[in-house]
Structure formats: C-alpha cells, structure tokens
C-alpha cells in the first residue's frame, strides 16, 4: 500500500512538472524588464514606419566646426568623435559653440533636398555624444541659444520637414561627455548618486522635446552601450513607457533599453526590446533569415565611416548606384534604408551629398513603386538583383535589376501554384517576352532595353493557375 502511494505521488509530481514545462518554456528567464510584447507592432504608426523604405539621417553639431581638423592636422576617425581622442583639450572643444553660426542654414532647403531624394523620414541629431543641444533646452546652458546663431535649429527642422511631408525622428545620445553626472560605470555610491541625477536630466530633456516638438514620430537613441546604462535596465524600461504614455504611437528602436541583466537590443530570452531592430549600422543582413523576421533599419554613411562633417572623407565613397542597390536590398529584406548627411558648420552640404541625393531622387521618381510600402518576397534570390512586393500583398512582384546577364535573359523561379502572366518595365511599361521553362522557372527576356541604370520589371502573377504537371515538378 505504502509503495502504491509513493508511485502515485511520484507520478503526480511528474505530471505537475510536465504541466509547468508546457506553460513556461524551458529557456525562459524570468524578467521584470525584458521585452513586453512578442512579435511585431502592427498599429497604424508602425505600419507607416514599415512602409517608408528610404530615410535621411542628419548628423549636425559642434564637430562640424572642426570637420576632423585641429591645429592644422586632420584626424581620420569619425569626425563627430574628435573630442574623445585626446587631441585637443576638452575646454577647447566645449567652447566651439561660440563659433557655431550657420549663416547659410535654411531648414526648408534641407527638407526640399530630402523630399527630392525620396526620403519619407528623417532622423536629426538633437544631441550627440558631445552633449551639445541643438534646441534651447532649459536643462543645460550648453545649447543653441548661447551660440552666436541663437535660434532654435530643431524647431526649424521639425517644422520644415513636417511641412514637406517627411516624418521626423529625434536622435538623442544617452552618453553625454559634457554632463558632469555622466558615468561610464557605476562603481561607488557617489557614482550612483551622480548617475541618478543624470537619469533625471535625460528624462527631463526628452519630455521637454515631446512638449516642444509634438509632431515627432519617434526617438532614435544612441550611446547606450556603457555599463552605467546597462545597469539601468529598470530606468530604461520606465523611461520607454513614460515617453510612450505621453506620446502614444511613438516609435523607439532597440537601442534604448537594457534588461534586468544588462542585455541590450534582445533581452535575456532573445526577444527584441524595441519597436524595430536598431543594430544594422553600416551593414545589411545577408539574407532574410538574418533579420529573424523583425522590423529593422540600416543606417549608412556615404564614406567608409564618419557621420558628422569631415573635411576629408575616409576610404571608399559609395556611388549613387551602390547606395540605390543597398536601398533595394534593405527593402527586399523588409528593412528601411537611412542615408546619412553631415552638413558643414555654415549649414550647407558637401557637393557629393547634394549630387548623390539628386541621383537617388531621380531614380526614385521612376521606381519608387517598388520601394514604398514594399517588402520581402519569399522567392529564390537570383543574381540579377532583388524582388520586392507591396506589404499589402497583391499580384504584382517587382524585380529591381542591377546585373543583366550576357544572355539578356533573367531567370525567375516562381513558387508552386504561381504563374507569371505578364512582365513589363516599370519605366514606360514596355512589355517583355516571357519564356516558360521546363518546371517552375521562367525567363524574362530583355532584348534591347537601353537601360543604363538599375531598373524595375513588374511581374503580373496569378495564383492557382499552375498546371498539375508543373506542380509535380516541385515534389
Ligand atoms: O558613435 C555613434 C556615431 O557617431 C553615429 O552617431 C552612429 C550613427 O548610427 N551611432 C554611434 C555608433 O553606433
């Protein structure tokens, strides 16, 4: 009897453990400050973000006064980091605001240039790591109102871009080299006390921005990699929630938060913390699997590296066609592509940036149908370029072509049960001949199209029209 009882209780215990194992996944680490939702945000604001395709990044601040030069010498790192290299005394850098007087600055001209390029959103540095604020914040005197220029730059930009129909996002660096309460790590009570003051300063500044520029759509956080911030998971979580409560719909990427254990971007259970993945800086995922199906954005510089204005650009300068290809690749993998501009201290842009924006804009004028509100197509990738389709899927598939084979025939492998009814060039709608191959592949024959630039072919497809014989070829 005793034995029977024991077996029963062991069985029961096993059943309870089994139940537990079913309801809580084995690898789940209990977190107070992990991701608060699983899967994508599907509200209207986020759908709008998803459809942008192309954005502009602006890095503008005191570093543009130096442009990477100090005392007749040029420094080859990212020019906006010059204060941190020990090449010039901090007091010299921190006095640059006395020289910041962008006489040529015209926010409307900037917005028109971005609009012509085809940008649907802009991210503007309101405060980079140097701590200088482009808006007249009441929380530090290290701001635009104390420069010879005096006027609120941010307000002009927010108004001009919004008027041009471009959504505005504010870049905000948490790391702040100028604020005496900033800490890289928290190693003592004194550090913690100072950093608590700093956190309040950050919260105040962000709430101030929301109050002053209510048109904005989101924040773009940076400088969140230090231990002090990684140890502030609870604060970063409540800050995120506060900002969203004040401004419902606000979009914030994965750079802001840290979880209970200091994990960034993805929490300790591997879940994305933020509305989109913000780790694709100067790189693009190699394929769709690498995106893990998340929303994401790639931020790209035209030179090898460097975001703020540098008198000399380092390394390879990307050509407009390279940039257009990056844009196409991002959209084909469900991401947005954001191209950086680093205006000069006088408020003008370098010629190469102006020229590139024009070329991209001319291309977008013809081909934007394959970029805006478009995303991933689960068809076998081919060497000629990239597929996209409308996020609200219909029967059209876009082929953005960068490499034309010598044969002039572009191979398309359509999935089971999908038939290509018609193919034509988006520019001018010239119809192209289709050759159905044995099995599921099709050739789109280009003949002489005279295309010198990347171009788009539209495929009109029909589902469920494949013959049974063709379908069997997939088995
Ligand atoms: O250090 C910055 C850099 O200067 C620039 O602002 C880029 C933009 O993505 N973010 C940081 C590095 O991740």
CATH superfamily of the largest domain: Glycosidases
Q: What value does the Rg take, in angstroms?
A: 26 Å
> Largest sheet at a glance?
8 strands, parallel
Taking the alpha carbons of the first and last residues, their distance comes to: 59 Å
In the predicted model, the low-confidence regions spanning at least 5 consecutive residues are 1-24, 466-475
The secondary-structure element order is HHEHEEHHEHEHEHHEEEHEHEEEEEEEEH
Counting DSSP H or I runs of 4 or more residues, the number of helices is: 12
CATH topology of the largest domain: TIM Barrel
Average residue-wise pLDDT: 92
How many domains? 2
Q: Within the largest sheet, what's the order of strands?
A: 7-6-5-4-1-10-9-8
Shape: globular
What's the total count of β strands? 18
Secondary structure: helix percent = 25-40%
CATH architecture of the largest domain: Alpha-Beta Barrel
Strand content: 15-25%
List of distinct ligands in this structure: ligand FHN
């Amino acid at each position: 009897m005793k034995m029977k009882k024991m077996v029963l209780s062991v069985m029961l215990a096993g059943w309870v453990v089994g139940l537990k194992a079913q309801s809580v996944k084995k690898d789940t680490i209990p977190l107070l400050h992990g991701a608060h939702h699983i899967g994508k945000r599907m509200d209207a604001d986020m759908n709008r973000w998803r459809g942008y395709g192309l954005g502009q990044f602006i890095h503008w601040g005191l570093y543009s006064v130096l442009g990477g030069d100090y005392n007749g010498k040029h420094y080859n790192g990212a020019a906006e980091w010059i204060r941190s290299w020990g090449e010039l005394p901090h007091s010299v850098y921190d006095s640059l605001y006395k020289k910041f007087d962008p006489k040529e600055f015209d926010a409307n001209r900037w917005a028109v240039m971005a609009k012509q390029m085809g940008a649907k959103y802009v991210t503007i540095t309101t405060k980079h790591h140097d701590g200088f604020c482009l808006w007249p914040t009441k929380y530090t005197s290290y701001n635009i109102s104390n420069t010879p220029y005096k006027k609120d730059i941010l307000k002009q930009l927010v108004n001009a871009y919004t008027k041009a129909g471009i959504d505005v996002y504010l870049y905000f660096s948490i790391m702040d080299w100028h604020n005496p309460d900033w800490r890289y790590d928290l190693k003592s009570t004194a550090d913690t006390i100072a950093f608590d003051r700093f956190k309040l300063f950050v919260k105040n500044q962000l709430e101030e921005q929301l109050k002053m520029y209510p048109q904005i759509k989101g924040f773009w956080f940076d400088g969140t990699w230090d231990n002090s911030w990684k140890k502030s998971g609870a604060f970063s979580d409540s800050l995120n929630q506060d900002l969203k409560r004040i401004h419902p719909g606000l979009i914030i990427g994965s750079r802001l938060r840290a979880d209970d254990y200091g994990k960034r971007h993805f929490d300790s259970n591997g879940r994305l913390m933020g509305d989109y993945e913000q780790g694709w800086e100067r790189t693009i995922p190699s394929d769709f699997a690498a995106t893990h199906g998340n929303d994401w954005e790639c931020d790209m510089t035209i030179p090898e590296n460097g975001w703020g204005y540098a008198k000399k650009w380092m390394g390879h300068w990307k050509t407009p066609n390279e940039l257009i290809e990056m844009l196409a690749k991002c959209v084909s993998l469900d991401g947005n592509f954001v191209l950086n501009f680093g205006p000069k201290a006088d408020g003008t842009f370098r010629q190469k940036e102006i020229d590139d924006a024009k070329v991209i804009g001319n291309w977008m004028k013809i081909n934007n149908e394959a970029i805006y509100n478009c995303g991933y197509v689960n068809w076998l990738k081919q060497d000629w370029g990239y597929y996209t389709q409308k996020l609200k899927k219909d029967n059209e598939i876009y082929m953005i072509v960068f490499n034309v084979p010598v044969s002039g025939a572009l191979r398309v492998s359509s999935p089971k049960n999908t038939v290509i009814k018609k193919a034509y060039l988006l520019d001018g709608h010239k119809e192209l001949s289709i050759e159905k191959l044995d099995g599921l592949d099709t050739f789109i024959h280009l003949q002489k199209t005279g295309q010198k630039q990347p171009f788009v072919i539209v495929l009109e497809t029909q589902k469920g029209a494949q013959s049974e014989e063709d379908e069997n070829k997939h088995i």
